[in-house]
Structures are given as structure tokens and as C-alpha cells.
Design a protein that fits this description.
The chain is α/β, with parallel strands linked by helices. The chain has nine helices and 14 strands.
């Protein structure tokens, strides 16, 4: 009986969050170990399906770095990164598109549908969802060309509204095109941030392989402002592949997203724990 009462208490704790978030959009960037471990995969699919059934509008953006790297190795192509972004020549962008759209995306769609959801797999190419131009990074103060890496200039939000209003769960592969039809590989964190901004999402959630953002002493920062986030980047506390991730978070807040959460995808049901419990997990970024 005590166990049943405890379960009821958990449901009651979630009630105000369910009431407040009903009908709201939550963009989830799915990546890291949660895409590899079968138990974690299953829990993520369950979380996403549950969100839709209780009245939220989840939109999933996925990565696929390990799948891309594996495919490139098969084709004898070395993976290279600059500032956390994959250097993408013509062969690499073709392979990335093949892997992300044809393999990774469809596996996620099948996983959600297997839990009773109604997922639809699309890429940024479909319906001109993500219009891009070439992105240049900076190395030693100089502009650097890293190939067919895209910078999003327009989001066709009507397509996503159409899908979510008809009870579907969009699953987006991070490939876009420019006006001439050239495909570009886009950082999945950037895609998630841009979609969240365009849709004025209530929440943007990034599943990662870390406990959360940490300070210089290695302690988890449970909540931080945009100003503090920029300071940690400038001080080098946030570095490497975390830079595009947190810059996307900062941009999302500036674009009207209410809350951004960097959570540990290695924890089963981390999405539900972050959204529907008083304590939450990971790091929340606010204005």
C-alpha cells in the first residue's frame, strides 16, 4: 500500500506541470549515449510518446555523429572537427545525408511508433523546412571554411504546426538546403535551437552525456543566466563541443524560448524527471 501511495504522490507532483504545459511545444534534441544504449533508447521513446498523449507537442531533433563517423570509416574517410563542428566535404555531406535521413531518423520514428506514438520522420530538406547558407567558423581569429556545414536562415514552421496539430510527432534530421538545392550538414543542437525559436517553444531540452554544465571547480550548475553562460565560455570553462551547444541555448532564450535544459541522457526517463518533478535534473538556462 505504501508503494501505491508513493506512486500516487509522484503523479500528483506532476499535475501542475501537466496543467501548465498542456498544448505547449517542447523541442527535444536527442543525442549522446541515449541513442546507443537500448534501455535508454526505450525510455526516451516512452517519454516522448507520453508527452504527446498528455497534451504537449514534442518535436524531436536528432544527432547521429557516431553513425556518420562509422559510415565515413567504412568509406575510408577520416572524421575531422573544428570548434566542435564536423568538417564536411562533398563526399561527407552525401554520406551524412544518407545516414541521418535514411538510417538514424527512421530508427527513431520506428521506436516512437513502437511505443504507441505517431511519429513522422522528416529532414530539413522536406517542405523546405530548413533553408541554409554556408557557415564559416573562426580559427585563430581568421574565418575558416569547413565545407558543407549549414547556417539556418529560414525555418518553415507551418510544416511543423501542420504535423503537431494533427497529433503527429515530428522527428527532424539535421540536413538542410540552400536556395540552389545544395545539401548542408547542420549541427543538431543548432537545429533544435532554431526550431525552438521559430516556434516560440516553451522548452528546449538537450540530452547529453554529462550531468549538466559545471563550474571551474567541477560542480554542477543547476540554474544559470545567459550572462553567466557567456562568462563561462569566455573563461574557457565551457569549451570544445559544448560551445555550440550552449550558444544554441543562449540564442534560444534570446529568441523567446522560456526555458532551456541541458540534461543527462544517461539517466532513464530524464525527460520526464526534468519536466514533471520539483527538483529536475541537469542545468537550466534562463534569462
Amino acid at each position: 500500500m505504501d508503494l501505491l501511495i508513493k506512486k500516487a504522490g509522484i503523479l500528483i507532483e506532476a499535475l501542475p506541470y501537466i496543467q501548465r504545459l498542456a498544448g505547449k511545444t517542447v523541442v527535444i534534441k536527442y543525442g549522446g549515449n541515449a541513442m546507443i544504449n537500448e534501455e535508454l533508447k526505450s525510455s526516451v521513446m516512452e517519454d516522448i510518446t507520453l508527452l504527446k498523449f498528455i497534451g504537449l507537442n514534442p518535436i524531436v531533433v536528432h544527432g547521429g555523429g557516431p553513425d556518420i563517423s562509422s559510415a565515413l570509416t567504412t568509406y575510408g574517410i577520416e572524421s575531422r572537427f573544428v570548434n566542435g563542428l564536423r568538417v564536411t566535404d562533398a563526399d561527407t555531406v552525401r554520406i551524412a545525408q544518407m545516414v541521418l535521413v535514411g538510417k538514424t531518423n527512421k530508427e527513431i520514428v520506428a521506436g516512437i511508433n513502437g511505443k504507441g506514438g505517431r511519429a513522422v520522420g522528416i529532414s530539413g530538406i522536406d517542405g523546405a523546412l530548413l533553408e541554409c547558407e554556408k557557415y564559416y567558423t573562426e580559427v585563430d581569429g581568421e574565418k575558416a571554411d569547413i565545407g558543407y556545414v549549414g547556417d539556418i536562415v529560414h525555418v518553415n514552421q507551418d510544416l511543423l504546426h501542420l504535423l503537431t496539430s494533427d497529433k503527429y510527432i515530428p522527428v527532424v534530421a539535421p540536413i538542410g538546403t540552400d536556395k540552389n538545392g545544395q545539401s548542408y550538414n547542420i549541427n543538431a543542437d543548432t537545429v533544435a535551437s532554431e526550431l525552438a525559436c521559430a516556434l516560440k517553444a516553451e522548452k528546449l531540452m538537450l540530452l547529453t552525456d554529462i550531468d549538466g554544465v559545471k563550474d571551474a571547480d567541477g560542480n554542477i550548475i543547476f540554474e544559470m543566466s545567459v550572462q553567466e553562460t557567456r562568462r563561462l565560455i569566455n573563461e574557457g570553462v565551457i569549451n570544445g563541443g559544448m560551445i555550440p551547444k550552449v550558444l544554441g541555448c543562449v540564442k534560444a532564450i534570446g529568441g523567446g524560448v522560456q526555458r532551456v535544459h541541458i540534461i543527462d541522457g544517461r539517466v532513464p526517463h530524464s525527460i520526464l524527471l526534468e519536466i514533471f518533478t520539483d527538483t529536475g535534473i541537469g542545468t537550466m538556462i534562463t534569462k
